Amino acid sequence: MTSSNRFANRLLVFVCGLVLLVVGGAAAAAVLVPGIRDGWKDAGTQVTDQVDSALEQTRLVGLEVSWILIAVVALLVIAIVILIVFIARHGHGHTSRAVTDSSGEHGTTVVESSVAEQALQDALDDHSEFVASHVSTYAVRRTPVLKVSVTCRRGVSPKDAAAIVESKLLALDGLLGRELPALIQVSGGFRARVGKTTRLQ
Questions:
Q1: Which CATH superfamily groups domain 97-194?
Q2: In the beta sheet, which residues pair with residue 99?
Q3: Cα dihedral 176, 142, 150, 115 sign
Q4: Confidence band, pLDDT 50/70/90 cuts, at residue 5
Q5: CA angle, 197 then 167 then 187, to 5°
Q6: What is the spatial distance between Cα 129 and Cα 200, in angstroms, rounded to a whole number?
Q7: Which residues contact 165 (CB under 8 A, 6 or more apart)?
């Protein structure tokens, strides 16, 4: 329901977390372990000398700067642009309005998404068949669409869970006076496995 790919999101978070973990572990080892600290100092001196030599040998004609530095700056700019685009796209599609009706003679009727979401959320919270539930609103081809995600307890049939959600959606439609498109996502997961068993009557 968003314009950003879920796998790409998780991959980016995993890579960033892995890099931070490696850097943090290396920094801690360099401070706490004497042998690694001495080796780090020696390696750092050698790396500094090699970098200085490489920068000196790759200076551009007529400039006092190495093309390696220019390439590094260009890569950093590209990375920043990519991250900005990623941040801008993440979560794109959410809408703050569930209903906008301008067919009346006295103005436009607007129902905020938070009203519909909270009404449906309160109705779902009353059911012990669900470990957790979440309601959000997205704009799909300029049409507000509700996304209802529920996590069932053990022993609850997905069909029965969907039927409960559908009944609540019908009640919401009656309250709003129109039918809202909706996507129902039924799942289990760890919280469902460790929760108590509940069976529908």
A1: Cation efflux protein, cytoplasmic domain (3.30.70.1350)
A2: 111
A3: negative
A4: low
A5: 40
A6: 7
A7: 124, 148, 150, 184, 186
Q: State the DSSP code for 181.
A: P
Q: What is the C-alpha separation between 153 and 188, in angstroms, rounded?
A: 7
Domain boundaries, the chain: 6-88, 97-194
**In this structure, are residues 147 and 183 in contact, taking their beta carbons and an 8 Å threshold?**
yes
CB-CB contact of 108 with 118 (8 Å): no
- The encoded tokens of residue 194 equal 């460790």
- Residue carrying structure tokens 């968003």: 2
H or E segment and range at residue 85:
helix 67-89
Nearest to 95 by CA among 138, 134, 136, 135: 138
Rounded CA gap, 123 and 116, in Å? 11
Query: pLDDT tens, 72-91?
Result: 899 999 999 988 877 766 55
